[in-house]
Write a structure and sequence with these properties.
Two copies of one chain form a homodimer.
Chain A lengths: L3 H8 L3 H9 L6 H14 L5 H8 L4 E6 L6 H15 L3 E6 L4 H12 L5 E4 L6 H10 L2 E4 L9 E5 L1 H14 L5 E5 L5 H16 L9 E3 L4 H12 L7 E4 L2 H13 L9 E3 L16 E3 L2 H16 L8 E4 L2 E3 L11
Parallel strand pairs in A: 1-2, 1-3, 3-4, 4-5, 5-11, 6-7, 6-8, 8-9
Antiparallel strand pairs in A: 10-12
The structure holds a DNA duplex.
Chain lengths: 334, 334
DNA sequence: ATACCTCATGTAATCCATTACATTTATGAA
DNA sequence: TTCATAAATGTAATGGATTACATGAGGTAT
């Protein structure tokens, strides 16, 4: 494989000149540049980025940590991250942590070992202190999920406000007994969506009732089971707010198995607006997060840090969208 | 940031000795090793992998090219690739090509620039010649989709046999008018599934009828439209074979909108067994590919190439599984 | 005691590109 | 013509690790 030395020899110039041509740095005589380009072409030379990266102490590589790529929620975000990244010459390393603390730690070694110029956390497993430490040493951004106390920038939506809005929608439809399919995880989105649910009820004079709360922990199967339990009660809820679309699908399935019609007998709302929310039968009322944009903004924020243009952590909240579909609103049915 | 020189100074040994401790290469006196480890600990030293990689001419990084991570079909495969990769000290770079030829080419520069030790194609855009060239110069494997003529190993299932089997299942249920929702893409899976459909009909004395073929090109929306057209015919099919689960969902939706019951009025079968196939209502009959295993085998094959243990391309076919669910079989209904 | 070998460790070359600094050549002003 | 300055190019140091080869200490066989 040809190296810069071979090119220099072929073009009868020094390696410095070749490097200058490669990087359009200082001026090179047109004739010389031509000769170098010819030599590059002739030898089919490709710069070895390992050498360049070592010298420049950068890798143009970004670490993106997420629980699992199989969750369709993340795909749009990843596209945003990639697009902005590529536009700036960065490549993305997508890594599944499986929500495992150790695995996340292992991946972070790539930062410490200089194999990555920065990191975007989609759902950090580290605690606030550890996150802050990473944030103080390396460019880092949290996207979607975040730890409030951590000294690391984040991009997200206002989960509290969005959940409040969707529960209010159910209340406006006349529902008074509204169940919740939530999660025991203590990620910020769970906590805020729970709280908003409670608060929306109370603000409308509806007593919060722990019996109407089930836990699905973001899994279809467990949501199905939890919803079944809720719906088999004598005083079953007439509406269910699931804090993710996948769990909403579980809830709808549970309703169907209990021979209840959605939304006539029980209305169901989800959260996230994954592709399947509009493919399901009935189509699911949900909160659309600006996924692509969130990815873009997160990456832009990271790039700023890499360039040293950001002196203190930023917290960016983007707009969401309540999308009303068949699963809650009778008259939207065909 | 501490370097190996700092550690050597601190431990009062040479850099060679530090390196030996780091790599457990040749013998080092226990006392010396102890001193080195202490220095490493004290300075919180982490080897700079850029230096190591340059010297060793390897990156322990694998490029995985797929159309888009948002397709849930790929997630299981990626897990297999990751698991085997990590077990062997490799990291994965997942890259979305968006089925774009240029983008795929761009990513392949990472191989040429030595930033990646090998590549796994999930659905190559390159032509056979270009693939063969990559395969001759770098470790490479095709997984799931592949170009038959390319001189690059591949791991897949027998798409032809699987499709033949699922169409036979529909025929056994008594269907004679069976529609196809396929794709105009000329990837091997489309072609083979189409051919098998045709052949299965003919082998059972059913005339192949182009009027019963619609094209969805792997998209929900287009499959919905194509299925609507098929189902609005006077001589509408009583069964539909969609060559992907997502398109099967489109077909089911089309049936529902036409007030046809699935499977009573029209049976629908898919392909891939994505998670949503068993979450949909009705649950979808489909072919389960051994996704995780395919990922594992692909990665193992790649590692063999990297180690130079593979002299010629291998073609590995794994077993699939026909899973019969509600969407085709009346008596499996609750 | 001599020659030879082994083990532990050190010295310095190496991987490949970038870049600070040095050198040469050309240009223009005085 | 001479000196100062700018432009083009070259030389060599640099980034951080690995590793071939060199060295010296200690052990063994004769």
């Amino acid at each position: 494989m040809a190296t810069i030395v071979d090119v220099a020899r072929e073009a009868e110039v020094s390696v410095a000149t070749v490097s200058r041509v490669l990087n359009n740095s200082t001026s090179v005589l047109p004739k010389t540049r031509e000769a170098v380009l010819e030599a590059i072409e002739k030898l089919n030379y490709k710069p070895n980025l390992l050498g360049r990266n070592l010298r420049r102490s950068q890798t143009k590589m970004i670490l993106v940590l997420l629980p699992t790529v199989s969750n369709p929620f993340y795909s749009g975000i990843v596209k945003g991250i990639e697009d902005i990244g590529h536009k700036n010459g960065y490549n993305i390393m997508l890594c599944n942590t499986n929500s495992d603390y150790q695995r996340e730690k292992t991946y972070l070694e790539l930062l410490k070992n200089k194999l990555s110029d920065g990191v975007i956390f989609m759902a950090p497993e580290l605690n606030e202190e550890e996150l802050s430490e990473i944030g103080s040493k390396y460019p880092a951004v949290q996207c979607c999920e975040y730890k409030e106390g951590a000294c690391v920038s984040h991009v997200s939506i206002d989960n509290y406000k969005a959940a409040y809005e969707i529960v209010s929608h159910l209340i406006e439809l006349g529902h008074r007994r509204i169940g919740l399919i939530g999660s025991k995880s203590n990620c910020i989105s769970s906590i805020q969506r729970h709280e908003a649910y409670k608060r929306a009820l109370e603000d409308n004079g509806i007593q919060f009732d722990t019996d109407l709360v089930g836990y699905g922990n973001y899994s279809y199967k467990r949501a199905l089971k939890a919803a079944k339990a809720l719906l088999s009660r004598d005083d079953r809820p007439t509406a269910i707010f699931a804090i993710s679309d996948i769990m909403a699908i579980g809830a709808i399935r549970a309703a169907k198995e209990a021979r209840l019609r959605v939304p006539h007998d029980v209305a169901v709302a989800g959260f996230d607006n994954i592709d399947f929310a509009s493919m399901y039968d009935p189509m699911i009322t949900t909160i659309a997060q600006p996924r692509y944009e969130m990815g873009c903004v997160a990456m832009e924020l990271l790039l700023k840090q890499i360039k040293g243009e950001l002196d203190e952590p930023k917290s960016i909240m983007l707009d969401y969208n309540l999308i009303i579909r068949e699963s809650t609103k009778v008259d939207t049915l065909k």
